[in-house]
Amino acid sequence: MTQAMDKPTHLIEFETMLLGRHLQLGAPRSKRGGGRLDRSAYTLLSRIRVQGPMSIGQLSEAFGLDASTLNRQTAAMLRAGLVERIPDPDGGIARKFRITSAGENGLDAERAENIRGLERVMAAWSSEEVAVLAACLKRLNSDIENLDGRPWPRPQPQA
Asked: Which stretches make up the HTH marR-type domain (predicted)?
């Protein structure tokens, strides 16, 4: 039995499910060779870049993940040279993870590849259509974050 798609929220749920699949398995990304960041590294590095150095506790609070999961993810990032552990700049006891130049470069390369892929997909869209989608996605994510109590800091637009 198929569920009716008679409400916009039904369509949004279905389309966001497909979007998640496309972002993880998309053809343009799979053609790229080695050196790709995995999804967890990409997300963690993005957060650390915007927020600054973070401890396991801060990452756990920000992502709603347990410390053991984050210990595995950050250990892999340490081995790959994407982050380094530093003393807390604010004098706290916990050591923090800071993005390295290799992490910055990897994140920049991954983000550029993602943007190129989106630009290929939306090549026939008007700039207004792209801006509307961007604004709607930001609002959707912000509302989810507000309900969850975990707002995501956003980079400031460049002047």
From this structure: 1-142
List pLDDT tens digits, range 101-144.
999 999 999 999 989 989 999 999 999 999 999 999 999 999 99
Residue 49's nearest CA partner among 158, 159, 154, 157 is 154
Spatial neighbors of 63 by CB under 8 A, at least 6 apart, are 43, 44, 47, 70, 150
41-58 tens-digit pLDDT: 999 999 999 999 999 999
Using a cut of 0.90, tell me whether the model's pTM lies above it: no
| CA angle in degrees (0–180, nearest 5) for 31-127-138 | 75
- Per the document, the length of the chain is 159
Measured distance CA(47)–CA(41) in Å, rounded: 10
Show the domains of the chain with their CATH numbers. 36-122 (1.10.10.10)
Q: 70-92 b/e with 16+ CB inside 10 Å = b?
A: beebbeebeebebbbeeeeeeee
